[in-house]
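[Automated response] Your request has been received and processed.

Submitted sequence:
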Amino acid sequence: MSKVDLTVDYCGFKMKSPIIAASATPTHDPDACKKAADAGAGGVVLKTLFAKEAAPAYKFARPRFTLLNWNPTGKGKAAKYPDSFTLYSIEQSTVFPYDKYEWYINKTKELVGENVAVIASIMGGVEKGWEEQCEIIKGSKADMCELNFSCPHAAEVEEHIGTAVGSVPEQAEKITRLVRKKLDIPIIPKMTPQAGNVAGIAKMCERAGADAVTIHNRLMGLMIDIDKARPIEWGCYSGFGGPFMLPLSLRWIAKAREAGVKIPISATNGYWNWQDPIRAIMVGADTVQTCTAIMIKGFEEITNWLRGMEKWMEEKGYSTVKEFKGIALENIIPADKIEREVPIMAGGTSSKIAVVDKDKCSLCEWCQKVCFHEAMSMDDYPVVDEEKCEACGLCASVCPEGAITIQKK
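Generated structure:
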């Protein structure tokens, strides 16, 4: 039996694991939520109840998902997922209207059991809408409630919802206070990366009574079909996210902790492999939500994450998740403190150099193309001019064979 304990305390709720199925298609009904719970999720965030003014959101666009830069390698069962791509979508609200949303919550709770947190999600629009939605939540079995301040395209439907709340600090604080007065269960504002200072808004929500914050939702984007001279697929601005968002997500979690945010943080957006939740926890997250990984790899990816985390914890000697929470924060140094050297072109010398392993080199010549210091020439294989090499690292990064490393002279 494993000595690793994956349980976490999130807003006073003891979850069986730190992984949460995010508010999206994988939690669109109670049966889907049960699949997430059976795969090991410690919580599920239900699809968002939109404001009544946003009635068009209750109808699906067809299609509503497409993958950009989706380039898997191999074929058939041997095919491998790409490491980075974009999920471009116009994700919709819950299909359950006001009079069915309580049933959606309660039925989910019945199916997932007591050790899996059921987190409702609301987006009320004007103040009256938030108050009406709070009344629905109050009569339900929801364990917590996420406040959707961050839907990337909802404001295109109704001006008072989504990023129209999360990107305006005073509005985010105001709605948090309103909901805090109406609900007794933990409330969790969901941040938008489209705000100027996500950490600052998270701090304001904490001050207004939030029990936790989710960092963060997707961005709004636009992709154009040049043959049709129009946006692809459904034709409007859309949300986009995916593995490429991980550095942005980790940044804002770390910044929130540096800004003094003490309440729990639920990380979301950009988490693709089992290592990614560990990264989020290391910069201060308490739980990690996933949408894209489930949508592309299936509910079993939750199980894969937990197995990977458990094995890693055993190897590193960690017995609980709490033991490595935030440990990377003390190793983040200010940019003005990193080691720097005078550039060669300014009369300096480099203490490092690019080194080529000719046995691995496939003679693709990419290294020569990206060397803007003219330090790389091609003979039988790439040759590095020690007097010119700035050890910038670009050649090592582009090399498809991993034949180049940056080493000390």
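Summary generated for your ticket: The radius of gyration is 24 Å. The longest helix spans residues 300-316.
If you did not submit this request, please reply to this message.
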